[in-house]
Amino acid sequence: MDFAKISAYIESLYEKRKLTQKQYTEDTELKNFGPVVDDDVARMLQVLITLTRPEKILEIGTSIGFSTVSMAKVIQQYGGKIVTIEMDVEVAEQAAKNFEREGVKEQIELRIGEARAVASGMAEEFDLIFQDVGDKKLYCAMLEDYLRLLKPGGLLVAEDTLFPVFDFDSEYGDLTQMCESLDTFNKKIADCPQFESTLLPIGDGLTVAVKK
């Protein structure tokens, strides 16, 4: 099976969409930021949100806000809200500018700080949590927070979860610890009695788990 051909065909079907990763990053003034989600992940998030209509979303790892905006475009239609956490002040400031540019700033509350510290002080509940923080060790470290903050029936969605089986080029350096952290997270989610989950081969791997 030619996965590159499959991916190219799928992307060709959606090339007329107004909000794409390429256009979004080109319209962003700041060029030094963490990776953002691929277009197929952004579309999957929009499908999940359309299906479940979460009133309140928590995003861990804003970067310049492409995934945030992708989700906000959907919840804007029914009045939902997103709380998104970003540690880098400069990147967060650019994300805020992007939210305004895309007309979704009213749907988004941007909190600046280290993700675990911010989440540990939260008491509110969320219908969906999207995790794409750069420090992959936090995936496992924050799992108890996610269980505490997520409503029964809520979704935990995690990006980059197929990293453990990727063959990375040497230019990326030694990613052994990161891949080991994600492998541990994947096993914990798969074995967790409080979640019904699956790992989808979308983007760099997308885990979708429902809290029972």
Give the oligomer, counting copies of the same chain as homo and different chains as hetero: single chain
Question: The CATH topology, please?
Answer: Rossmann fold
Number of helices: 9
Could you give the order of the helices and strands? HHHEHEHEHEHHEHEE
Rough shape?
globular
- Under the CATH scheme, the architecture is 3-Layer(aba) Sandwich
Fraction in helix: 40-55%
Class per helix and strand makeup: alpha/beta
Strand coverage percent: 15-25%
Total individual domains: 1
Number of strands: 7
CATH class category name: Alpha Beta
Describe the biggest sheet? 7 strands, mixed
Write down the Rg: 16 Å
Sequence stretches where pLDDT stays below 50 over 5 or more residues: none
Sheet with most strands: strand arrangement: 3-2-1-4-5-7-6
Describe this structure in words.
With 212 residues, the chain is an alpha/beta fold. Helix 3 runs parallel beside helix 4. It contains nine helices and seven strands, in the order αααβαβαβαβααβαββ. It has a seven-stranded mixed beta sheet, with helices on both faces. Helix 4 links the parallel strand 1 and strand 2. It is globular, with a radius of gyration of 16 Å. The chain is 42% helix and 21% strand. The chain has helices spanning 3-13, 21-26, 39-52, 66-75, 89-101, 115-120, 137-141, 143-149, 176-191, and strands spanning 56-60, 81-86, 108-112, 126-131, 150-159, 195-200, 206-211. The model has no long low-confidence stretch (mean pLDDT 95). The chain has a single domain (3-211), classed as Rossmann fold.
